[in-house]
Amino acid sequence: MEGGFAGNTVQPNSFDKSKVLDVKPLRSLHPVFPGETNGPPFASAPPNGSFPSGFSPFFPFGGPQGSPSTPVLNHNPFNSTAVPIRSFRAELPGSNGENVRSSNKRKLAGSSSVKKKVKRGNESELELAALTNFKPGISAAEKDDGNRELVENVLMRFDALRRKLSQMEDAKEPHSEVFKRANLKSGNIMFTKGVRTNGKKRIGVVPGVEIGDTFFFRMELILVGVHSQSMAGIDFMPMKGSDIVGERVAVSIVSSGGYEDDAEDPDVLVYTGQGGNASADKEASDQKLVRGNLALERSLHRGNEVRVIRGFKDVTNQSSKVYVYDGVFKVQESWIEKGKSGCNTFKYKLVRMPGQTGAFATWKSIQKWRADPSSRDGLILPDLTSGAESTPVSLVNEVDDEKGPSYFTYISTVKYPKSFKLVQASVGCNCSDACKPGNSNCSCNQTNGGDFPYIANSILVCRKPMIYECGSSCPCFRNCKNRVSQTGFKVRFEVFKTIDRGWGLRSWDPIRAGTFLCEYAGEVIEKVKEGQDGEERENNNYVFHTNRIYESFKWNHETESAGEGSSNTSEDFDIPSPLLISSKNSGNVARFMNHSCSPNVFWQPITYEQNNEAFVHIVFFAKKHIPPLTELTYDYGTPPHTDEKESNGDHGKKKCLCGSPNCRGYYY
DNA sequence: GATAGCTCAGCCAC
DNA sequence: CGTGGCTGAGCTAT
């Protein structure tokens, strides 16, 4: 929203720059502007790759919008259209009584080859089978060769399935044997169904995979064809037309800290060969010139390009890893070196091919900023929330000499006027410390239709008409997993000056799909003034409307059994009355999020009870994995047509600069 | 074509 | 909390 304002309409002197955010102690901090901008590209919002067939506008509030009367949140939470996982159970022909264990590698009935832990009459098995019931929607040609849209489609569908499986796993008894590893299982289902792309191995660039693309599981690398080994670090393929029989060259490597690699210089990587590791039943040994090591040696002589994927510890979740595609390199030299164990290891020096902006360099500088935030180039303020949030938000300008956005008061949540009486029978749960996903006695679980809305890391599982978090009458603790949006954001944001769209929002952390980002804070207002003068128009740029028309999109996991018209997969929101939130005078980081026609963020209504009142909050989640320093954007929607006669028709139409291939050309 | 072997995962327990 | 152990997946090679 800041973009429309600062990008096009503002006169530079129309606000008092001395009142930069009213943060007194830091106003004197003299910003340092670098001579040139060589940061990563802004707003590289990729094309909208989700579910090509699923797009159609929808009208959330049936007819013409009434005057925004006092919203009364009185609908029965138990009327939620969502259904529990169990309702996804599918009838599997002959699956009863066939569950005699013959081998651990026995295949599941039907076309699926999902392996299983066998237990008699296992319900989980049937649930799992139901989840494999979806249309691959990927042709044989697309399985071999991909493009950006396919890559994004495959990744989003994988993660939707993984979240669903994780949710099921969370709901099981603690020591249940099933679904221990949702990522592997969902990967397996995707492979079995043929939902993958770039399955044909190749040397060099993979169509649809861009430098900086971020992954959270090795399975994802295989699914989009960037590195097709589930564990091994070196991937290779036969060299066609080679004189040497069975010659293989390396096509990609993953460097993620398992060996003694040297990765100080972002353009050079000294990679350690594979093998020779000590294990439970094996001593450390000399590495052999076979397999991956041999392939890298051949690549040195052939001079072919080798893709490099860098792995890091995920800062937001130390126990897991995050992978970044860093571009194509060439093997420049190789040698043998004694490792720490005293055994011989192969070393390969890889050097980045020219003409590529590396992603690794960006990641390294962010690590530096995290240790010392003042080392950030162009830093204006280290925390524009002045401590209002538990995670600081940097204010940065590397583009020009503007010292900050115009004045506003930072508030961390939405404010409803006193006249709004939102009544809801408060049904608190009885959970003692934290609500448990599988607990069907927890009324908060019931309110959410039986499905716990979140999995680990506060990842949202599915979009829903409404999500109910625990409230103040619930005795569970503040760290209950069903209190995600109300406990403040955890992402390390920065508000930054874009090149042509005013101020924008992005993150230092890599963000997984489904991550809670922030809510839309501001003041709930009764109506928008449709005026002609600049001030009113500018005010309107800061209003969030639930009564706009938003492009529908599919984010949840699909099954064939839950077809069209089935309410249990509805991703359309359901808010009792139109809601208008103005962040002009008061707001949080959300007011800086710009519009994109191919956004990487979506919003979701959430409610919870506080002091016997419940209000709707508009809460933002990541639509897909988002690399660090990529601008965060959502779809501003378009005003309903029924509004046309109320003003002169253009509703403050603005030229859209989102740059996506699907750009509508303008936004509101 | 089945299957054992290989391996810079990813968990959870300790 | 780091570390170890353990079960794994797809791909490769036999």
From TrEMBL:
It is found in: Chromosome, Centromere; Nucleus. Residues 491-637 form the SET domain. Residues 652-668 form the Post-SET domain. Residues 103-117 have a biased composition (Basic residues). Residues 427-488 form the Pre-SET domain. One of its GO terms (cellular component) is chromosome, centromeric region. One of its GO terms (molecular function) is double-stranded DNA binding. The keyword Transferase applies. GO terms for biological process: methylation. Keywords: Centromere, Chromatin regulator, Chromosome, Methyltransferase, Nucleus, S-adenosyl-L-methionine, Transferase. Pfam families: Pre-SET, SAD_SRA, SET. Residues 54-75, 92-117 are annotated as: Disordered. This is SET DOMAIN PROTEIN 19, SU(VAR)3-9 homolog 3. It comes from Hibiscus trionum.
